[in-house]
Amino acid sequence: MHLKTSYVSHIGTRRKERMLLSLWLIVAACITTLTACSSVADDASPVAVTDSNAIAFSSVVSEEEEQVGSRATSQTNLEDICQTFVAYGYKNAAVSGSGTADSPYSYDSPVEVVPGYTVNWLANTAYTSSSNTTGWEYVNQQTEAATAPQTIKYWDDKATAYRFFAYASASTASTTPAVSCTKTETQATITITGLDAASPDAALFSHLWFSTGSLADYPDKQFGRPVSLEFVRPFSQVRYYFVFADDIDSNARKAVTVAGYNTGYKDGTEIDPDKAPTFSSTSSSEKIYTKGSLSVTYPLAGTATETETYSATATESSALGGASPEKALVAGNAYTTVFPTPAGQQAYKLTATIDGEEKTAVVPAAYMTWMPGFAYTYIFKITEAASILLYDVQIAPWHYAGEQEEEWHNW
Questions:
Q1: How does pLDDT run across 288-297, given as a tens digit for each residue?
Q2: pLDDT per residue over 196-210, tens digit each?
Q3: What is the enclosing helix (H) or strand (E) of 20?
Q4: Which of 88, 99, 344, 363 has its CA 20 to 30 A from that of 301?
Q5: HSE of 90 in the Cβ direction (CA atoms, 13 Å)?
Q6: Contact 258/395 with Cβ under 8 angstroms?
Q7: What are the percentages of helix, strand and coil residues in the chain, rounded to 5?
Q8: Residue pair 162/170 in contact by the 8 Å Cβ criterion
Q9: Helix (H) / strand (E) containing 182
Q10: Minimal CA–CA distance to 175: which of 157, 195, 147?
């Protein structure tokens, strides 16, 4: 609420004096309260909301929602999927370097601030304590197996940088993947085992939250504000489909036949899966998997400040397609959820029969790295000569269609 200055200017002089005196008394009381709070480094009880120096958390799940005729990025609140996550936080006590390309800043001497705290979603509790301004609370939220209570943590204005990360498990998942965290002096690694693409929300991890507190460089990551962790599903989504070249008119498009695929221009087209296009690796040893384990490594010090790295190990028995791995991906507008390939893959080859003739197109290996939390669309163009070529590769955050029916597009 904002008090209008025009209203204040019409208040009588004595009334002004009484208001000013009251204001000074309130300010003095607040200063006393803040001083008392800051003298306790780890108080297990939630403190007054006026203590803005307490570390607090918020969270989202990054994804994309496709709408009819358009595309809009959206974010789901984590509490809609998981009501608990485990958070880690570090501050750096030293910095070196000049900030140039030859001598980048290095943020070192990491000190653990949040040592794997359980953070719980408590509905309708936002702003009931300074450690809970969004509904997520960590103070006294330790599990029964914990050896010590979870105490409130405060920002240190002498720190050169802060970094936070977390993982979450969905309590509603039929099978809950196992999650562990190992730490060294310079990095921490979260490993999730037992992942299954059939349950993509069963376990999630967050991107690294990093900030030096600089308003110019990190306007949305200021010390003293809630740490907003962006969670990611540990899988990828992949699809491919065909479009026509612009110089092929609608009548010509109706005459084109792609075996096993509905171009959207022929009424009553029957889809024969045995004749459908195939899209798979040029290496016979590479398959598309749905299960495995994923390790996410976060830097705690050094110049690699804002990115985590991944290592994935697929479960051999989870290969899609069985005896026909080239048919694991089905041409169309729907995504297939797959295990990520952060180490990359070999080139992929598309084979399709167009107007009775076999045509092929190759996607270079540079475009075949599937990172967790992202959706990949490979678009192939049918040319006037009835050949096919790779037209576009689109990469977007995880696609969420909800209950909305997707629409086919040929543009």
A1: 999 999 999 9
A2: 999 999 999 999 999
A3: helix 13-38
A4: 344
A5: 26
A6: no
A7: 10, 40, 50
A8: no
A9: strand 178-183
A10: 195
